[in-house]
Amino acid sequence: MDVASIAQVVSAVGTVGLTVLFGFQLRAFHRQVLVNRDTLNEMREARVSHERPQVLVTAEYRHGTLVEVVISNIGRGDAKNVTFEFSAPIESSVSYRRDSEVVPLSELPHFRDGLNFLAAGAEITSVWDYHANLVPLLREMELQEGITVTSRYDDLTGEPYETTWTINPLLIPGGLYATETGTLDG
Known about the structure:
Strand content: 25-35%
Number of helices: 3
Distance between the termini: 107 Å
CATH architecture of the largest domain: Sandwich
Helix content: 25-40%
CATH class of the largest domain: Mainly Beta
Transmembrane segments: 6-24
Number of domains: 2
Keywords: Membrane, Transmembrane, Transmembrane helix
Number of strands: 7
Order of helices and strands: HEEEHEEHEE
């Protein structure tokens, strides 16, 4: 074999080797593109979830022993078409009386009919009852596990969301609340 033939064989082997190496690099590049795409999708999902609305219904103890039910949008996005579903009526010691004309809290228009719009950071507060009146009532109604509230709503683009929350004033003892004068009940 002469030098020219050897050079041609070496050149052919080198070309095949470079082609194989290029194939491996192309495959590695493709994998990196997929990883980058997944990373970008995760970042986009995180941004969208961070900017979405999140509507909660909670029981708050803001004024001594008074229990309030608070609808709040703790997300950064506005919510529209907000509706609520309750596992049991939110009765108070006044509404639970047989001859009472007071409706359960869950029958108030903003709960019964829902809300057209709830801005980010907005709250709607409704007085439920005094803790001392509520505890025996919830026990009588056999609601020791609380009341589950499901809120359904859309963001401004129409993407639907649902949040389920349990409100249960029985979990916090009433003697731990400060009264209006600043002293502890008990």
